[in-house]
Amino acid sequence: MTETLPEDRSDEPITVERIASDLRDLGLGAGDTVLVHSSLSALGWVCGGPVAVVDALQQVVTAEGTLVMPAHTGDYSDPGSWQNPPVPDDWEETIRETMPAYRPEVTPCTRLGAVPDTFRSYPGVERSRHPVVSFAAWGAEAEAITADHSYDEPLGEQSPLARLYERDADVLMLGTDHGTNTSLHLAEYRDDLDKEMDPGGAPVIRDGERVWLRFVDIELDTSDFPQAGAAFEEDCPGAVTVGEVGEATARRIDQPSLVDFAAEWFTEHRPESLEED
Q1: Is 265 part of any domain?
Q2: What single string gives the DSSP state of each residue in 40-106?
Q3: Judging by beta carbons within 10 Å of its beta carbon (0-12, 13-18, 19+), is residue 238 exposed, middle or buried?
């Protein structure tokens, strides 16, 4: 083995058993429904890497519960909206005509990190049909949570996020922060502000053929997610449990409480609200 361990490595390897024990200490247990956001590197030196993390989560939640992760594929979106980096204008039509179709069984979600990309290919995992913002799920409610994911407004009322809300799910953040807390998008749909609509598109399989599907979504904005999350934790401490999983700071959050709070917070604090005062 030629890999060099980092100087700030863990004092000991982070094992499946250690992760599972830490998750239970955080209050996660059999039968729970949980949406997981994760940073593998934040956990320390994990023996088995992302497989160990998924194995530990499944051990704790068990098949009686439901484990969910975002499996988004932003690089399968319309190239006209790409910013980081953009592509030349004269490439756009070629991309729309030739990009392979989104296929839930094989399309990777590597930009989200190693844990969700590993999880989405596990046996028994269901993945929703949206080509840009799919979710993967395993366990008792996996099919119900991922079914009929709306192409239009895909993080709103006909999304896995809304199905998680209905099931009193938790959000589990393993070494991540509210800047990537996807449930806050559901709150954006539920605030009282006027909505601007953005067109989008992506390649999908329909009736056995590749087609370029067009859809619309509200204009989303993650820039104030950290502030909304911090305000929630300050105002609703009983809805948040903070601890350590491996070497990462972890949070277990009541998702319905978070969404309800953030919908009101966005209504009161976003620039559209302030302009009306």
Answers
A1: yes
A2: TGGG-SBTTHHHHHHHHHHHHH-TTSEEEEE---GGGS-GGG--SS---GGGHHHHHHHSPPB-TTT
A3: exposed
Integer Cα distance of 127 and 73 in angstroms = 12
d(CA 96, CA 82): 13
* Residue appearing with tokens 């913002």: 133
Among 194, 164, 166, 196, which residue's Cα sits nearest to residue 181?
A: 164
Q: Which residue has the tokens 């909505």?
A: 195
Examine the pLDDT at 5 and tell me if it is beyond 70.
no
Which residue range is the domain that position 251 belongs to?
16-276
- pLDDT given for residue 275 in this prediction: 59
Sheet holding 248-254, edge to edge: 126-127, 135-139, 66-70, 33-38, 170-174, 248-254, 240-245
Quote the CA–CA distance of 65 and 58 in Å, as a whole number.
9
Asked if 188 and 258 count as a contact pair (C-beta separation under 8 A), the reply is: no
Query: Is residue 6 domain-resident?
Result: no
In a domain, 2, yes or no: no
- Residue 31 has φ and ψ, to the nearest 5°, of 90, -5
Residue 266 counted as domain residue: yes
pLDDT in tens, 110-138: 999 999 999 999 999 999 999 999 999 99
Residues 53, 58, 60, 65: what is their CA dihedral angle, to the nearest 10 degrees?
Answer: 140
Number of domains in the chain: 1
